[in-house]
Design brief:
alpha+beta; single chain; 5 strands; 2 domains; elongated; five-stranded mixed barrel
Length: 294
Amino acid sequence: MKIYQATHRGYLRIGNEENGIVEIPCAVLENKKRIISQTGLFTAFDRPRKGEKRQEGLPSIIGAKNLVEFISDEVLDKIYPIHYYHSNGTTSVGYDADLIPLVCELYLDAEEKGVLVASQEKIVKQAKIIIRSLAKVGINALIDEATGYQYDREKDELQKLLSKYIQEDFLKWQSRFPRKFYQEAFRLFNWKYDPFSLKRPGYLGKFTNEYVYNELPQGVLDKLVEMNPKNEKGNRSRKHHQHLTEEIGIPHLDKHLMKLITIMELSDNMEDFKIKFNKVFNKPFQTSFEFESN
């Protein structure tokens, strides 16, 4: 079995000031598996690793005979120790972090059936504290926060999204925005439209970013601006759409333009357009830029 490297490490804090807070060593492995240390499983429930007789093959935390009937298949899938490479190069052992809430459920089920012994009451109390701690945020999210992985996770997810929309190379230029888009934009701004001229008011770029590229997934416009910056004269060497992927980015752009042009056609002026646009796309009325006209 492959042994994975721990990419992020930290301490998961569970509990409250009244009952005490325990810190559980945890980590995220390179395969995205969230784990707690072997000792951490027992620390979570405030009990020693050894001491009670247990069933062979089960961690002592759930190995008592009176608990066996409450061990589900899901628990059995999670009880196997996971070997991984510690950040200091040594090999460490832990458990799948999902085992913590599963152990909590096991003890609560046993309590409900009235089969617990006196020495297990303390564990039930701790299980209830843990369940309350996890009520709003899952174990994986808590570990992501404790280890700092949440920031890399968000960055990774954004990169995956951007890779679907944006390509490193750029497409050969071709007209992507229908002439109707410009006709309607000029009309709404009360600008004179010359179908034989390719000259566009500079302010049209702000309009396009706001109502076109800003409607692609969050982060796409920022990446386009980064890859296609303005020169000293304030011009860009390419059109933003030349950096969109043909598989995902361009189809999304085309679909949005069709919808946008319909709203433009149904609008009497820019103020009317803003109202209709915000209603269709469920946005607050104010936009990020003020109305201008030439």
